[in-house]
Design goal:
GNAT_dom, acyltransferase activity, transferring groups other than amino-acyl groups, Aminopeptidase, GNAT superfamily N-acetyltransferase, 263 residues
């Protein structure tokens, strides 16, 4: 994609996945209130702001309104801030209101037809589709070992999605023998050209052997089979160069600002 394409695809991303966002799981609802689009979900789901159209005059009031909404439900929530969002000091305003920024990532998008999809898993590894509770347990096991984080919310969300709307998620686990060593998922957004890559993680002993690339290629082929044009990823500094070699382009940055109620 050249610069003109970048601008057009980012505008499409903003429209389809943010301004006109759809609920990402059972029990979730998307609401448009003032200049903000937010998702309210069960406690184990994703709660937060996906899009805003604010200026210096109304930003602080909008922030206060979202804090009141989510804390009234007893929910921690995330304001997903992108590098081109306005006002330019929105991140500073969020911090002043009590949010904590997590590490900045890069929004990367690849046109499926232009990606390098011939990457296969290393010898001795087989990729297994995740379709049931046993598979979800394997994904959760990889997540906990790869990221050192509790996977109970991920387990609940993935089970919900596979049960209620299996056509909107593709999950895969890489097995070395019967041991799960890497896992990832793809979330499909019906009615748009976008599918999102999430959760790519590999246990330490298997890193650097091409598993991340293989799981990206596997999901990209699945997206192509389903007619999706674009893949998007919130890329860490570690995954960005791998994705660039596969044909993804950086469009902007994204930073989660997290608000946790004090009581």
């Amino acid at each position: 994609m050249d610069h003109t394409d970048h601008t057009a695809v980012l505008a499409l991303f903003d429209r389809d996945l943010r301004r006109e966002a759809r609920p990402d799981g059972p029990g979730a609802r998307v609401e448009r209130t003032g200049g903000v689009v937010r998702q309210t979900a069960p406690a184990h789901g994703w709660n937060g702001v996906v899009w805003s159209a604010l200026d210096e005059a109304d930003a602080d009031a909008a922030i206060a309104e979202q804090i009141a909404h989510f804390t009234g439900l007893g929910r921690a929530f995330e304001w997903k801030l992108y590098g081109h969002d306005l006002p330019a000091d929105l991140g500073r305003r969020l911090v002043a209101a009590g949010f904590t920024p997590e590490p900045e990532e890069t929004l990367m998008v690849g046109e499926v037809a232009g990606l390098a999809l011939d990457t296969e898993p290393p010898e001795g590894i087989r990729l297994v589709p995740v379709t049931d509770r046993a598979g979800v347990d394997l994904v959760a096991d990889v997540h906990e070992k790869a990221f050192g984080a509790d996977a109970s919310r991920l387990r609940h969300q993935l089970l919900d999605r596979l049960s209620a709307d299996p056509d909107t998620v593709v999950a895969v686990v890489a097995l070395a023998g019967d041991q799960p060593v890497s896992a990832a998922r793809m979330e499909l957004v019906p009615g748009t050209g976008f599918a999102g890559l999430w959760g790519g993680g590999t246990v330490r002993a298997w890193r650097g052997r091409g598993l991340y690339r293989a799981l990206v290629a596997h999901r990209a082929r699945a997206a192509a089979e389903r007619g999706y044009r674009y893949l998007q990823v919130d890329a860490s500094d570690q995954s960005r160069p791998i994705l660039e070699r596969l044909g993804f382009a950086p469009l902007t940055t994204t930073t989660p600002y997290v608000y946790v109620p004090t009581s």
